[in-house]
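Reading a protein record of the kind used here takes only a little practice. Think of the row as the fold of the chain written in a discrete alphabet. A record is reproduced here so that you can trace the correspondence yourselves:
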Amino acid sequence: MIAEDRITAEQQRAELSTRQERAPMQLQNKTALVTGSTSGIGRETALLLAAEGAFVIVSGRNAAKGASTVAAIEAAGGEARFVAADLSDLESVGHLVDAAGEVDILVNNAGAFPFAPTLEQGLETFTTLVDTNLRGTYFLTAALVRKMAAKGTGSIVNITTIAGLSGMAGTSVYGATKAAVDSLTRTWAVEFGRSGVRVNAVAPGHTRTDNVVEMMGDETFEALGARVPLGRLAAAKEIAEAVVFLASPKASYITGATLPVDGGFMALGLE
């Protein structure tokens, strides 16, 4: 991941100015909620949505990091506010629903990801993964999509993983929860398509973020990047670009799709 502290306010303003000169902003007068947007892919998605004109509700558990994301958006000329939420807690999910109100775009990015081999998987971590990645995402979406359907428009993008599309040792529960969200993506696309709501997913490949590097170690993670056909890890912003595309009017006839953004990793097959 490109470290947040390397991106100055001047760089943010310059990037926003370049975007404005290149093309009109796609998401003016839209409100977007991005869960888990205090760091990593979620933060980059929030920045890009704001650069396209959306008012962004930044959400996560860390208020200081949330304030930093909001400040970065505002420094670049965008608008945002922070709402604290923990998706593993349904009471907190309910508070987020109330605080968000009506949104035009929902990016379900928040997730827990401690990896463990099946024989070493503990109940506590199992429960956290299921509650955060599946239960919290499910009930947040159910509450907000009702309002989108009533308006006749909306876009939902779920962040899943290539570990939910293929077998990866050590990711049994994580991959299963994200595979479930891929299934929900297809179901919701069918259920809400006639109400004008599109639902898609982005399945990131090996992406450099601070949290993942801290969990796996830098050398181990870099070795995974070497196996990718493009020969490197993804930057969080590269995943965010795909999310914003699916959320935008440019993807107006795309729904029910899971897009792997993985540098060709899923194309490897047997080696």
About this structure: Residues 207 and 234 are 4 Å apart (CA to CA). The domain at 25-263 is CATH 3.40.50.720 (Rossmann fold). Confidence is low (pLDDT under 50) at residues 1-6.
